[in-house]
Amino acid sequence: MRIALLGGTGDIGEGLALRWAYHTNHEVIIGSREPEKARAKAEEYETELDSRGVERKVTGFKNEMAADRADIVVLAVPPYHVADTVETIADKLDEGDVLVSPAVGIKRDDDGFHYHRPGAGSVTEIVADAAPEGVSVVGAFHNLAAARLADLDAELGIDTLLVADDEDAKETVRMLAEGIEGLRALDAGGIANAPEIEAVTPLLINVATNNEGLHDLGVRFQ
Amino acid sequence: MRIALLGGTGDIGEGLALRWAYHTNHEVIIGSREPEKARAKAEEYETELDSRGVERKVTGFKNEMAADRADIVVLAVPPYHVADTVETIADKLDEGDVLVSPAVGIKRDDDGFHYHRPGAGSVTEIVADAAPEGVSVVGAFHNLAAARLADLDAELGIDTLLVADDEDAKETVRMLAEGIEGLRALDAGGIANAPEIEAVTPLLINVATNNEGLHDLGVRFQ
């Protein structure tokens, strides 16, 4: 499949891009608001993969162009840019394309990190509200530590939870997720169930902050 | 130590009572609003332990009496009974006693299970607000599947997260938690960090509901 990572120059975008390029044969397209930045990062990822003996073409484009070329569009942008990013690319999406939402609202105070739940209910719901008709939305990859994902030497052995109201789209993303070695994708139901998943991300930071020897945590349901 | 499990006749109370009686030498006291029920359950737990070759005294009392006899009081009652339960036992608590809050507000709709966050911020915070001066509060054991805990043949291999504003009390509960074989206790910071922990419980139910072969789930941070 052709996967566009909008915000693919950022941390979670980098991790997903490298993992998909390394572990699968899906076409990986980096999107950014600045096309030069997208191209530069794509080259950087190619170099990283090349250093591991994997010759892979990774391309970089402006977000709209990246979305236009892809079947699966991952919104690896900060939560407050999600709605306008979907608006920007809306007319480049074809019926049957899938939008994937990994973003999480987090606020920090003196005690720790907390889930900043948006008025819509969740960031995934914001994407669903903004998505053009015929384009399905899947919430996924919320609880992955970006640095660990981007370190191809790091073993995963963790889960990602999927929410979607369209079972076919969910199955497509499940397949993409499980293409990443060590990542298990579990079904968490419909998009209405996204808040509890998004809230795990600040929790992971709190646990890592308060326990020596734990960092870049993920979660395993067992 | 002397541990009172108020609501110790209910599911999570039963699991903790059996595990502590089975794996540790702490004194286990069952509390209930109805003393006969507490005594009957305590006997039932003794019989279960006896069938496994463990001869243990488990006692049962009215909640107030149970709290009076204990150093650690676990509020294994439904979230809407937490505040009045603390009120009922308040004058039986001594300075230095520790209240432990495992309860979680959950609501169900057509999509699944959701965190029902109380106005105070979390159930743990409700307990902290209601606790008499000199009595510390620790949030713990929120994300344990009761049936799995109560089945002494079931392996755990999962984590419980602790929140408290009093580090000594947190350390006491950490020690109690890790006395249970297969349970790892992790520090998640202060009580203000409780909501994200409590929200994991409905998530565990959603994941178990939507994935064949997964049930009575716990979580492991790794």
From TrEMBL, chains A, B:
Pfam families according to UniProt: F420_oxidored
Biological processes annotated in GO: copper ion import; NADPH regeneration
Keyword Oxidoreductase: yes
Tree of life domain: Archaea
Protein name: Pyrroline-5-carboxylate reductase catalytic N-terminal domain-containing protein
Limits of the Pyrroline-5-carboxylate reductase catalytic N-terminal domain: 2-105
NCBIfam families noted in UniProt: npdG
GO molecular function list: coenzyme F420 binding; cupric reductase (NADH) activity; ferric-chelate reductase (NADPH) activity; NADP binding; oxidoreductase activity, acting on NAD(P)H
Keywords assigned by UniProt, alphabetized: Oxidoreductase
GO cellular component, one term: plasma membrane
The keyword Oxidoreductase appears for this protein: yes
